[in-house]
Amino acid sequence: MSAQRDERFAEMLETTQAHVRAYIAGLGVPPVDVDDLAQEVYLEVYRNMEAIPADLEPIRWLKGIARNLCMNHFRRETRRKLKTQLESLIEHLDRTPATFDDVEAMQEALRALDGCMEQLSEKNREMIRMRYRDGRTSESIAEAFATTAEAVRITLFRLRGKLKECVTRRLEPHG
């Protein structure tokens, strides 16, 4: 019985392997993985020869197994890529020095920024709010202030510099 089974399998392998490999490649599996997946297909078929319906062409059965194994392959690859990306992100974050060691330091910096914002004119405060709180473009802000987008960009550049100097001064230890 086992010899018949092996002969049937060998014949199936001989007559279908090129088609199965082409089918796997056609599903988008990278060429380096096609042979490995084809081998998995035939191992699965060999283990389950008795399950192949007598009225079904073996190639259809093989394609179904190949499709399922390819989908599993794609899922594994996606998980592997996501894991690699996540590990890379974690490594990057570990290497990145923390800007604020704790919440208290961040709150102090925000208080400093609020104080510096209060020193600006109402027009400049509004321009900063429109850009950074509301996410408006330079063109949109220019319309609101009846000026040019370039003038808005230059003003925002100068305001950021002023705010940075002011915040830095306020956060320096009083010595």
Describe this structure in words.
The protein is an all-alpha fold. It folds into 2 domains: 2-95, RNA polymerase sigma factor, region 2, helix turn helix motif (Rna Polymerase Sigma Factor, Chain: A), CATH 1.10.1740.10; 103-171, Orthogonal Bundle (Arc Repressor Mutant, subunit A). The protein is 79% helix and 0% strand. The protein has 7 helices and no strands. α1 (2-26) packs across α3 (58-95), α2 (31-47) crosses α3 (58-95) and α4 crosses α7. The mean pLDDT is 88.
Key descriptive features of the protein:
Rna Polymerase Sigma Factor, Chain: A, elongated, single chain, 175 residues, Arc Repressor Mutant, subunit A, mainly alpha, 2 domains, 7 helices
Q: How many separate structural domains?
A: 2
* Relevant CATH superfamily of the largest domain: RNA polymerase sigma factor, region 2, helix turn helix motif
Alpha plus pi helix count: 7
Distance N to C terminus: 94 Å
For the residues shown, what is the average pLDDT? 88
The CATH class assignment of the largest domain is Mainly Alpha
CATH architecture of the largest domain: Orthogonal Bundle
Rg from C-alpha positions?
Answer: 33 Å
Name the shape in a single word. Answer: elongated
What's the count of strands? 0
Proportion of residues in helical segments: over 70%
Stretches where pLDDT is under 50 for at least 5 consecutive residues are none
Order of helices and strands: HHHHHHH
In what range is the share of β-strand residues?
under 5%
CATH fold annotation of the largest domain: Rna Polymerase Sigma Factor, Chain: A
The assigned structural class equals mainly alpha
Biggest beta sheet attributes? none
